[in-house]
Amino acid sequence: MKNTLNVLLGKLRMKQLQLLIALDDQKSLHKAAGLMSMTQSAASKALQELESMFEAPLFERSKSGMIPNQLGHCVIRYARLVATDLTALCQDVAEIRSGRGGRLAIGAIMGAIPGYVVPAINQLHAGQPNLSIEVVEDTSARMLAQLDDGRLDLVIGRAAVAADPSKYQYRPLADEPLSVVVGYGHPPLPRNEVKLSHLADHRWVMYPSHMPLHALLEREMDLAGLAMPDNPISTASTFVTVALLQSSADLVSLLPTAIAESFIRQKMLRVVPVKLKSPSQTFGVVTRKGGVLSPPAERFVELLQEPTKLQGEPRPPKLKPMPKRKPAPAVAKRKVA
């Protein structure tokens, strides 16, 4: 391992890493060489030098072109990471020189955005008004892939969904309580406490099967002695979920409470008073293990972990139960003469 590291540090060139990325994208040595403004013989020699450093081939030739093998995929992934980090370095240097103050790319699951990400961004921006901030809202699994590629500086989500959670540093922040919701036009339910069985005639809008919140709903259905609906509408989009719920009184869904509250205040959703038996899932700050955060990213993490500094931000009110249906007024009976 030490010899390999010394060889890489002594001989590896950025041009070779760029060639690997181009080969992975183009599947052709001729096209990759053209993209790199190299002759094909020069590209072939550079690839041979790389394979010599790793003492193994990195690509296999097939009808569809040059396909990276297992070692090739590994090297290419890190090549992309190095290239992305260098690109980010150049952008940060250019922005600092121009007075714009650098950039920060954050990934966050939707349940963490109202109570944590938004207040922390407001605090950060107040102290660093020239900082450029990008926020990506997606599933933890997809954002971890972007974190691996260097496209995100950090993720507010769950590291446990990764194939290898040990390669990340995870700092828990809070639980993510969930609420069962329907569209605002849904008729009020008459009971103080509603069971999932009372929603049997509703169609569910639910998260895709690979997401943790889908598994949680599946567990709740199992605890209630119910089967998962066989005709759900599957989406990971909050906008799509809310739009669907508003469009039909026959639809019901499960949303993070922090997200649901925003739409309840706007009279777009109603909460269904279902008591869930599963414990709330925890989310936290996920970063690359061994990676170094930029000063803005470090400050952002500090703000996330200082709840007293976020208490000044307006927090949504507690959920109110759906109003009971008022009984019809009694009709007085006429006396028969």
UniProtKB/TrEMBL annotation:
Gene Ontology, cellular component aspect: cytosol
InterPro entries xref list: HTH-type_LysR_regulators, LysR_HTH_N, LysR_subst-bd, WH-like_DNA-bd_sf, WH_DNA-bd_sf
Transmembrane portions of the chain: none
Residue ranges of every copy of the HTH lysR-type domain listed in the record: 12-69
GO molecular function, one term: DNA-binding transcription factor activity
Biased composition (Basic residues): 317-337
Gene3D superfamilies in the record: 3.40.190.290, Winged helix-like DNA-binding domain superfamily/Winged helix DNA-binding domain (1.10.10.10)
Location of the region described as Disordered in the Swiss-Prot/TrEMBL record: 306-337
Metal-binding in keyword set: no
Keywords on record: DNA-binding, Transcription, Transcription regulation
PANTHER family reported for this sequence: HTH-TYPE TRANSCRIPTIONAL REGULATOR YBHD, NITROGEN ASSIMILATION TRANSCRIPTIONAL ACTIVATOR-RELATED
Family: Belongs to the LysR transcriptional regulatory family.
Protein name in the entry: HTH-type transcriptional regulator GbpR
Record organism: Paraburkholderia rhynchosiae
Gene that encodes it: gbpR_1
